[in-house]
TrEMBL record:
Its EC number is 1.1.1.284. Gene3D superfamilies: Medium-chain alcohol dehydrogenases, catalytic domain, NAD(P)-binding Rossmann-like Domain. InterPro entries: ADH-like_C, ADH-like_N, ADH_3, ADH_Zn_CS, ER, GroES-like_sf, NAD(P)-bd_dom_sf. Residues 15-373 form the Enoyl reductase (ER) domain. It comes from the Eukaryota. It is an enzyme of class 1 (oxidoreductase). GO terms for molecular function: alcohol dehydrogenase (NAD+) activity; S-(hydroxymethyl)glutathione dehydrogenase (NAD+) activity; S-(hydroxymethyl)glutathione dehydrogenase (NADP+) activity; zinc ion binding. It comes from Chondrus crispus. This is S-(hydroxymethyl)glutathione dehydrogenase. CDD domains: alcohol_DH_class_III. GO terms for cellular component: cytosol.
Length: 374
């Protein structure tokens, strides 16, 4: 049976810096090597808010945002071989084609097969599958999960075990995987290390649990919102620090507190000032700092080059260095056996109509993660 166009609800971002609007949209059938997914759950990540704020150089409007989604395959286009109708899937904004130079390299997860069209808000053939009131809507991050149905490239869907609860494992589509993966894959934190995590949202708390699993002996959580500290401690933080409690720059405070700084630091906020602080909180000679946070258009990082000359390393992480289709299913297994914690991080669930409230609760610091259930 050939699939037709579906009319369904979506949260449409008509322009930057405005509320999302729940609209009826048309979602065309998947073309060759495309998959249409019935989205059942999606987290709201700070990156969605970043793009909505208008500071993402790749932000295009009108669009359907959302990139932390899980659902069930509704229909498939020609030549799709990796999933079938009814499969449970996670949509991955970092796809894995398995064939490009990036996929073949063990040094990166950044498959580039469809990166150009993904950044341009269209499917790999250069066209879009969404319309609303006769207008084309852009896709977002190759996923667009703030819709009841979405169309994604086949290399962007990860088939997962059917007993994994989609309303929880949707967070593996971004926040949880990113934080844990950055610790494991990008920094390769060793047992006995000292670690500091700047920013205790969904990403930072996942870095904390990653550090605990890696056997770090000291794990500092740093946040200007002390309401995040209890969860950080539950997930493995040994010390929590609020920069607002100190008059000196936070890097100076931390270097003094630790007698020299950390083996590894992770910036999970997205501000260039805290990126600098995270780098300068590293131990002379060997400390490594990983930028995970996404900073706005035109922003640049800086530090004294002497910081690097004297042995500190600055690196970055996208999706925790995780190769999506080959590595996510194993991480879902880790969740299913209780090693990776997700449930604790879901502060509140929302129906689609209340999605703007989920953004508000993230901005006000009430939520670690809000999840929209369809
Ligand atoms: P979040 O909003 O849930 O958490 C951010 C935390 O930072 C909050 O707890 C906030 O109180 C804290 N914070 C803000 N300013 C601070 C400051 N000056 N000092 C200390 N703490 C401060 O965000 P999130 O969803 O966890 O995402 C974190 C960052 O990571 C964002 O920039 C997001 O865009 C980015 N991100 C990147 C990737 C990647 O693959 N590189 C993946 C996911 C998210
Ligand atoms: N569009 C932005 C970059 C945004 C960015 O860095 N995205 C991260 C994922 S954030 C998920 O919450 C990422 O994986 N980047 C790798 C990539 O290829 O986009 C800009 O600055 O243009
Ligand atoms: Zn994200
Ligand atoms: Zn590839």
């Amino acid at each position: 049976m050939t699939a037709g166009t579906i009319t369904c609800r979506a949260a449409v971002a008509w322009g930057p810096n405005s509320d999302l609007v729940i609209e009826e949209i048309q979602v065309q059938a998947p073309k060759a090597n495309e998959v249409r997914v019935k989205v059942l759950a999606t987290g709201v990540c700070h990156t969605d808010a970043y793009t909505l704020s208008g500071t993402d150089p790749e932000g295009l409007f009108p669009t359907v945002l959302g990139h932390e989604g899980a659902g069930v395959v509704e229909s498939i286009g020609e030549r799709v071989t990796n999933v079938s109708v009814g499969d449970h899937v996670i949509m991955a904004y970092v796809p894995e084609c398995g064939q490009c130079n990036f996929c073949k390299s063990p040094k990166t997860n950044l498959c580039q097969k469809i990166r150009t069209t993904q950044g341009a808000g269209v499917m790999p053939d250069g066209t879009g599958r969404f319309t609303c009131k006769g207008k084309d809507l852009y896709h977002y991050m190759g996923t667009s999960t703030f819709a009841e149905y979405t169309v994604v490239a086949d290399i962007s869907v990860v088939r997962i075990r059917e007993d994994a609860p989609l309303d929880k494992v949707c967070l593996m589509a971004c926040g949880v995987t990113t934080g844990i993966g950055a610790v494991r894959n990008n920094c390769k934190v060793e047992p006995g290390s000292t670690v500091a995590v700047f920013g205790l949202g969904g990403v930072g708390l996942s870095a904390i649990q990653g550090a605990k699993m890696a056997g770090a002996k000291a794990i500092y959580g740093i946040d200007t919102n002390p309401e995040k500290f209890a969860m950080a401690e539950t997930l493995g933080a040994t010390v929590c620090v609020n920069p607002k409690d100190h008059s000196k720059p936070i890097q100076q405070v931390l270097v003094e507190l630790t007698g020299g700084g950390f083996d590894y630091t992770f910036e999970c906020i997205g501000k260039v000032e805290t990126m600098r602080a995270a780098l300068e909180s590293c131990h002379k000679g060997w400390g490594e700092s990983c930028i995970i946070g996404v900073a706005g258009s035109g922003q640049e990082i800086s530090t004294r080059p002497f910081q690097l000359v004297t042995g500190r390393v600055w690196r970055g992480s996208a999706f925790g260095g995780v190769k999506s289709r080959s590595q996510l299913p194993g991480m879902i297994d880790e969740y299913m056996c209780g090693d990776i914690k997700i449930d604790e991080m879901i502060s509140k669930t929302y129906p689609l109509k209340d999605i703007n409230q989920a953004f508000e609760d993230m901005h006000s610091g009430k939520n670690i993660r809000g999840v929209v259930l369809f």
